[in-house]
Amino acid sequence: MRVVATLQKHHYEAYLVGGCIRDLLLGKKPKDFDVSTNATPEQIRQIFISNSRIIGRRFKIVHVLQGKEIIEVTTFRSNQSAPAKQRSGRTRVKAESGMLIRDNVYGKNIIEDSQRRDFTINALYLDPVKKVIYDFNGGLYDMQQGVIDIIGDPETRYSEDPVRMIRALRFCAKLGFKISRRTLSPIKKMASNLSAVSNARMFEEVNKLFLTGHGLQTFRTLRKYDIFKLLFPSAAELLDNQNYINFVEYALSSSDKRYMEDKRNMPHFLYAVILWAVFQKRMFICNQTYNSAVVLVPQNKLISGLLNDIIAEQNKITDMPMAVADSIRSLWRMQLTLDDIENNNIDEIAARNIFRASYDFLELRGKFEPYLKTAIDFWNPYYIKSKELADKRKARKEESFGRKARKKEKLAAKKKAYEDKLAAKKSRKKANTESFDDEANLSAKRKKQLEKARAWRAAMHLDVK
Ligand code: ATP
Ligand code: MG
Asked: Where is this region: Disordered (predicted)?
């Protein structure tokens, strides 16, 4: 609300838009807040000079930092191509497939902006100052009906951006809404277009699908519409294995629970869960093959090779940051380590960064692989100790963050007071300068000062004609 009010104070139009309005109307807690405005990214930057930055190339957005929260502020966009008179840089570039590579054509107004949004329920605008909701596409009706309906021609909109297909399924899983027939029908046919989406963006989309509190339902919906195998091709052959489904579903439901408890879900854990059976299966096959080989391959080399292969295959679809890939490798390797309680460097293992996540993973597996109980019981006291230490560290960090925030607030207040003082001085000076023109109204003292100043300027040859 503060961001919207500030933009409006600077005479721009500004609204809260998208998922936050949809979720508020449904009585859900919004994941984030998006603001739409007619100010350009550069103008937005000027207003929030000390707490904003421009991001994105395909689509320029300004991130405005408010406390701990990032508010995404976007300039009205249009679905039309750029008029010739628009400056270069404001472009809407389509690839041959119809996919939008860049989408920076600014829209004239809120109506144009609403038409370039994905679904009617995501195109509701709230002016929190006037307390009015604007709906140009029947979004409120669809909210009442519980329907996800794409704006415009479905095939064109999916060609422009294939991610909209996954978004339709995500909202279906998240909200329990039905997807309208016209929105759903091209998805099976067009799903292969997803391969054209950059794998870095796909990584972000997959995180949103599974890590934001509705992973279990999403997993079911993606399987129902045959999209899961496109996102995780190496796990495709496991989809008719009920043990695999049970394990992934159990893990996802526990991460959904974590999300409800405001705990963070990490991408490496998700990927480790989904691809674990792939690793196990390949290990099994490799061991069978190599056990009968003439030259034995060291176990360590075999594991490294398998891990790298699985991660490289997945990276073709979702480009994982290096740290995520490293954590998956460590977490899986730790499964083999934790299983071996005869190990003689127990304390060193329990002190590793990945230890707690690895234990959590082992515990999940324990539900389906009962023989792991001995290892789980053995590591449990180390896990509890490690968790206590981590909680203490977190509390200390939060306390110091609070201290830092208070200090920052104090400094900001000081800066504001100084700026106000400066502004007051400036306006006083302005008032004085103005009265210089009107000598008749000056006080005797002021007149004398003026004369002195003039004489001094004349003596120094400073008067400009
Ligand atoms: P949530 O934040 O709960 O995941 P959301 O709808 O807010 O859902 P965001 O990714 O935050 O999703 O996007 C904000 C808004 O931007 C959307 O509501 C929609 O209006 C618009 N939008 C996002 N992605 C697209 C897209 N690929 N095509 C068209 N419009 C989009
Ligand atoms: Mg959002």
From this structure: 420-444
